[in-house]
Design brief:
The chain is an alpha+beta fold. It has 19 helices and 34 strands. The strands form nine sheets. Strands 7, 8, 9, 11, 12, 13, 15 and 16 form an eight-stranded antiparallel beta sheet that branches. The longest helix is centred in the C-terminal third of the chain and has 21 residues. Keywords: Cytoplasm, Elongation factor, GTP-binding, Nucleotide-binding, Protein biosynthesis.
Length: 638
């Protein structure tokens, strides 16, 4: 049973025998369209199964004509090994060179050169052909590649080519089957009675019959009704395999080549602003200028956009630059994905490279942006996670997959280490924050509360919502709230009702007015039930009017006084003494206003206010003209 899964690309100049060689190896004619038969050229991508002992491989036959470069790029985007086809009777041609350059930009590292139509040339010319090829492949991915002479009609060299393919496949690491499922779609069609079917090569992860998937960039939810690998029904297909998936939940018109089928976990998200490392083509005809229109090819997608430079206004041939592309439509890419840029007019391959950050932002022109992009380019998984948490402050695991473009297993492995080393902290069940960002937020909260306590010493603390709002420009509301909650949980902040404070803080009179306010409070006590309005005491002591309400709330909130009405207060000591005097004077029995007046020395107006306060505090309850005790004073006074 095969245990290794790979995709092989068949590339090269038009009419050099790619399709014929594919058929010779697989017994499958990949030219399936009527127009392809009539013109005898490949127009669309062709696919054929190519079992090779323990290797289950697929061959992708890509068009060789310069007009079909977009199809060629889509076809080779997901391959592991490329066979570069060069006809012995023609040698290296323009599309041979362009295909080599495109394959280089796409990061294909394993290749074999198949020299077809070998029986058409005299043996004496073989050495000259090899020299021509060696010259063309110098300093390319094919420089060390095996060169195999074959003839697809007579079968000459085919066993040697199979052996070379097998040998090269043994050197190639398999794709990541543990990652989140991703399938760039290169074909969409319908099957009578079954509905919409998509095809592609699985970049990473696995898919099973019954899986709920998402079509990006439009975030359409679908179900994998049936999974096939080369017309054979499978329960599961894994990274590296060529697969067809019958989808339920959408029509053929709602999906196209270039869309991406992904797991519904949200590990991949569409983007239209991408930070890239770009290497321009060696034979670039015209300089590439700032904001020039480009065609972006990645996976099977082809999207128009513009190029943005941050340290120059143009690039020329054979230059390497860190820059950004901004697309007219969203695509799905991950960090490390390869791409090709082409100029729409005049048509030519501009260059290619790899994605540094799929979710770039708008940056300023200048050296600081280039330094930032360099850090992103060189960043280790740990640095990328910490940079993402620094930039976004608070993130879920799904967010981090999105921000860092790490595979799930790599992210989880690194998060275990970061949490163990306390470089990352967990917040609730779902969120993570870097230790640095947490400490920044914590210190900002503490400083905010210190300033608040200094400005408003009479208040119990700062309203939690107000504190969160005050720090909104520095930290996200969600982060500030979660840090406050965590600090409260650990006893490092105090809370009374909706007010939060430093744990050591106690409300107090402002130092500047402390003596005068204490004198006003003492006078309130001395005047007993005959006290003046509270404001009058403050007026007499020349307390600023802006503090009147603050002081009143302080006295009431801290139990130093009770309100008789909107203007009058009663000192706590007076309240307690008068309460005990009343209770003892009538032996705890029901009483009338007249009974209370006979015991307490107060005007009828002030006495009524005092008794109504007792009712409000549920110490007494009025029934008709009498009041009965609901509680004993000893249970009230502390």
């Amino acid at each position: 049973m095969p245990s290794h899964f790979y995709t092989i690309g068949m590339a090269g100049h038009i009419d050099h025998g790619k399709t014929t060689l594919t058929k010779a190896l697989t017994n499958v004619d990949t030219d399936r369209l009527k127009e392809e038969k009539e013109r005898q050229i490949s127009i669309e991508l062709g696919y054929a199964p190519f079992p090779l002992d323990e290797y289950e491989t697929s061959i992708v036959d890509v068009p060789g004509h310069e007009k079909f470069i977009r199809q060629m790029i889509a076809g080779v985007a997901g391959i592991d090994l490329v066979i570069l086809v060069i006809a012995a009777d023609e040698g290296v041609m323009p599309q041979t060179r362009e295909h080599i350059e495109i394959l280089s930009f796409l990061g294909i590292q394993h290749g074999i050169i198949a020299v077809t139509k070998a029986d058409r040339v005299e043996p004496d010319f073989v050495e000259l052909i090899e020299e021509d090829i060696q010259s063309a492949i110098k300093n390319t991915i094919f420089e060390q590649a095996d060169i195999v002479f074959v003839d697809s009609v007579t079968g000459t060299g085919l066993p040697a080519l199979r052996a070379a393919i097998k040998q090269e496949l043994s050197k190639i690491p398999e794709r990541n089957a543990k990652g989140s499922f991703r399938l760039p779609i290169d074909q969409v069609f319908t099957v009578q009675g079954h509905g919409t079917v998509v095809r592609g090569t699985i970049y990473e992860g696995t898919v099973q019959t019954g899986d709920i998937l998402t079509v990006l960039p439009y975030k359409t939810s679908v179900k994998a009704r049936e999974v096939q690998v080369h017309n054979q029904q499978k329960n599961i297909a894994i990274a590296g395999q060529r697969v067809a998936i019958n989808l339920s939940g959408l029509s053929k018109e709602e999906i196209k080549r270039g869309d991406v089928l992904v797991a519904s976990s949200g590990s991949f998200q569409p983007t239209d602003t991408i930070d890239i490392s770009l290497t321009t083509a060696q034979d670039l005809r015209l300089p590439l200028k700032q904001r020039a229109p480009i065609k972006f090819h990645s996976g099977t997608a082809e999207v128009m956009g513009k190029i943005i430079f941050f340290d120059r206004n143009e690039v020329n041939k054979s230059e390497e630059v860190l820059c950004q592309i901004r697309l007219d439509e969203p695509v799905v890419v991950g960090r490390g994905d390869r791409y090709v840029l082409r100029r729409p007019s005049p048509v030519e391959t501009i260059g290619g490279g790899w994605v540094i950050d799929p979710f770039g932002e708008k940056y300023r022109f200048g050296v600081k942006t280039i330094q930032k992009l360099e850090r992103k380019r060189e960043g280790s998984p740990e640095e990328r996670i910490l940079d993402a948490l620094h930039a976004h402050q608070l993130a879920t695991k799904s967010d981090l997959l999105h921000f860092t473009s790490l595979h799930v297993d790599s992210l989880e492995e690194m998060m275990v280490l970061l949490i163990r080393d306390k470089k990352v902290l967990t917040m609730g069940a779902d969120f993570f924050v870097s230790e640095v960002v947490y400490e920044e937020a914590r210190n900002e909260i503490l400083e905010q509360l210190r300033r608040y306590h200094e400005t408003f010493p009479l208040r119990a603390g700062m309203n939690k919502a107000e504190c969160i709002q005050a720090l909104d420009k520095k930290k996200t509301k969600k982060l500030t709230e979660m840090v406050i909650d965590k600090e409260l949980e650990q006893g490092l902040l105090a809370k009374k009702k909706q007010y939060i404070s430093l744990p050591e803080f106690e409300p107090h009179f402002p130092n500047q007015w402390k003596n005068r306010l204490e004198k006003a409070l003492e006078r309130l006590k001395d005047d007993g039930l005959g006290a003046q309005t509270w404001d009058q005491y403050l007026i007499d002591e020349k307390i600023p009017e802006k503090l009147y309400l603050e002081v009143k709330h302080y006295l009431l909130d801290n139990g130093l006084a009770y309100p008789l009405d909107e203007k009058h207060l009663i000192h706590r000591d007076v309240f307690e003494s008068q309460l005990m005097k009343l209770y003892n004077g009538i032996n705890g029995l029901a009483f009338s206003v007249q009974d209370a007046k006979a015991i307490l020395d107060a005007s009828r107006k002030n006495l009524i206010l005092f008794l109504e306060l007792l009712d409000q505090l549920q110490i007494t309850q009025r029934t008709d003209e009498k009041r009965k005790w609901l509680r004993e004073p000893d249970s009230i006074i502390i």
